[in-house]
Amino acid sequence: MALDPAAILGPDGAVARRLPSYEVRDEQLRMADAVARSIEKGGHLMVEAGTGVGKSFAYLVPAILAAVELKKKVVVSTHTIALQEQLLRKDVPFLRSIMPQEFTAVLVKGRGNYVSLRRMDVAASRAGSTFHKPEEFDQLAEMRFWAGKTQDGTRSDLDFKPLPSVWDAVQSENGNCLGRECPRHKECFYFQARRRVWTANILIVNHALFVSDLAMRASGYGLLPEYDVAIFDEAHTLEAVAGEHLGIQLSNVGVDYTLSRLYNERTKKGSLAFYGLSDAVAQVRRARTAAEDFFEAVGQWHARQSTPTARVRRPMEVSLALAEELRKLSTAIDRGAESIESAEHHIELSSAGERCEALADQVQGWVRQGIEQQVYWVESESGPRRRVRLASAPLDVGPTLRKLLFEQTPTCVLTSATLCVGSPPKFDFLKARLGLTRAETLALGSPFDYPKQAEIHVARNLPDPSTQPLDFERDVIAAIAFYLERSQGKAFVLFTSYKMLEAAARALTPWLAERNIAVFAQGDGLPRSKMVEAFKSDLNSVIFGADSFWQGVDVPGESLSNVIIVRLPFSVPSHPLLEARLEEIRKRGGNPFVEYQIPEAVIKLKQGFGRLIRTRTDRGIVAILDPRVLTKPYGKTFLSSLPECPRIVDTQTFDRLPGPSPGRSA
């Protein structure tokens, strides 16, 4: 049976019959047909589809048809919560209302997002010996009331942000579950959700959960049921998310937190105190001393490296006493649990023992560099309490994704507005990074009229930021002001470093104040979503944003008429993971700048450009202040990767801030 997305998305389709103003988009139909073919025939597909194509309908419609007509199980994975919410609250309900096929789509959340009713009862019974802050008792009481009326029992349904100590005491956990033996099993939110997941046609997840599931499958169990089709939207982020979830993350703060849950020396509270396990309490003290010694030794090593993030090239010569003491603690807890008759309390303790054992494995795995083909590093942040973080990530996630995903799943579809580099567009970079050696590719433009809607301005007369960084940072302040004046704010200024962002915000605040332009600078403490809300509601305002503002932020309309890109977004090659990847390319005779740094930066530049035009009526400019797009041979690759629209080279010099705006006295 051939899948026919045009019956839904075509000129005479179900969407057109419902929406009189519906405009058929050729790019959307071509993408939907390509997705349908990949599902029917098997095989993988990469699709770059520009802003405005309507990617979500282009993959959801064939996915729904395949799920219903071909009985395929489909997983749709996104990077951002915003896109998940769009799919669940807008796109899926609309398609359900117009498609003749009946289908079910559910959001899959990680287990730790659900409240465990049994653990909540246990937490209430021992609250006096676990909590010591008034707000902890208050929150637990509020949660118990909320548990009686919530529909899904997940943390996002709470109208307050729970304290970690409270949520940890009540969340559903894999090793802390009685299954069918649980007195609250029938009411359990997590198992109700699991039943819906097993019967649904379409599962919506995020990349983090998807990759966690892949890692678990390698050990013989998983979070998701077997699926036939995996669709990745925002697929340009998949490599980075996979790297984060296929390595080790460990910190002194995390270890201390785990130990304090068991026994807090200052308050004399914790689960071990509640059960009166004095031997285990004594072992917590020994483990805490070992943790202090261990992180002090790692911290001293880090201090000698004179860099915030330091790569550990060979196993570090530090004592493994912490791993040993954590294993002894696990044994002491298990021994104490044997004397507890209640199954509910017994499992609480054995789960805590497993956590200590897992922590010991992480410490030992990191010190001995036990996972092959991983890059290991240390990060340190000073503050009221120094934070030392140990991390590792795969040198290359491609082999793991190829083995666990692309060779196991009949059809994978990867889509984003930014997967290609250059003109004609090439997918080679991301295919290689993700280990996807064989796939159909399709590069679709955008239905937007970029030649009429957008202009690219390039500032020629600025110093080269790679050879004259201080001169560039000084002069670029005036260039930012010059382009902000063109649109009276209404701009995103995108930076590649927080240090430069802060310097520009400081220098330009008086100038902006004179023009009554509000400035929202990332790093001032306001969450990204709140910054965007404030920006939208104040027409004469500007956002100074770093990494997270280059992608996933949607501001249609006049509010955003100008995107200023301060520097080409090359990653800092001093980060251990990037440094190791570049070394590996060099080792096999390749050119890391050409093979990795340029294509990675091109994809990020395309993301930044994509903030400007979000609808057919948007108008504006993108100003690139980095003169290397004109002076370096690779500049053509950057400019040719952007949509076709007028390119204007601005030749004025930027040696001082623009003078008073018209109508104002100097």
Give the name of the CATH superfamily of the largest domain.
P-loop containing nucleotide triphosphate hydrolases
Helical stretch tally: 27
How many runs of DSSP E, i.e. beta strands? 18
Strand order of the largest sheet: 3-4-2-5-10-1-11
> Percent helix among the residues?
40-55%
CATH architecture of the largest domain: 3-Layer(aba) Sandwich
Please name the defining characteristics of this protein:
666 residues; Rossmann fold; 4 domains; seven-stranded parallel beta sheet; 13% strand; globular
Structure description:
The chain is built from 27 helices and 18 strands. Mean pLDDT is about 90; it is low at about 660-665. Helix 6 (about 115-125) packs antiparallel against helix 8, helix 15 runs antiparallel to helix 16 (about 320-335) and helix 24 packs across helix 25. The protein is an alpha/beta fold. The protein is about 45% helix and about 15% strand. About 40% of the residues are buried. The protein has 4 domains: about 25-105 and about 200-240 and about 395-445, P-loop containing nucleotide triphosphate hydrolases (Rossmann fold, 3-Layer(aba) Sandwich), CATH 3.40.50; about 110-190, no CATH class; about 250-395, no CATH class; about 450-650, P-loop containing nucleotide triphosphate hydrolases (Rossmann fold).
